[in-house]
Hints:
By secondary structure, the chain is of the alpha/beta class.
Amino acid sequence: MAANDLAGRRALVCGGSQGIGLAAARELAARGAAVTVVARSEPPAEDQFAFLRADLEKIEDLVPTLEKQLPPPPAFHILVNNSGGPPPGPVVEATAGQLLTAFRQHILASHLLMQWVLPAMKAQGYGRIINVVSTSVREPIEGLGVSNTIRGAMASWAKTLSREVGPHGVTVNNVLPGATRTARLEQILARRAAATGAPREEIEARLRDEIPLRRIAEPAEIGAVIAFLASPAAGYISGVSIPVDGGRLHCV
Length: 252
């Protein structure tokens, strides 16, 4: 794959100030894309991305907030939908407010952003919409009730969208990260340690033992898959959910 295979392309990356979002932004930029990051906090100073400040939970203000910071039209070729996961906990204890917040932050925010960038993608005959979801799309994860619920809905939204926009040269795919070294994983490990009384290191060791590759992914490894799906080489891949989990899933 050529290092500049995304030269001349513009990418909009949500949640790009840290973790998987930042890793994706870096990889897209390394491949030649002009990257704009959307986040509540700015990315590290060493990353020279364009930056738009917005809160994905404030749905009514999302697109107007972005339009105020970015001259029209928003001619992006690539959209990476990525947002922090809902708080952990069993689904039986989830409140209506928690479910609604997660729905707005993930599905509604992604939907509004898609509608914002899609006209330019259609006009250019090239579009890549990539959603960072979770392996819970295939197998629910214990203790992440709200997340399991919303991630499944996100995958169904993406599959439906892929069939509608495919004739315009736009692909829609989901990346399903497994255990990855992010703040989200630290939150999950800490919660499990508190619930069981076991040391955090022991909880992490158990997690690694469940992964055939016996290690936890680095964000850059997820970012590389996102960048591939954004590239011309992935032009015939659409409507799929790709696990990047070291082989941990038991299903095919």
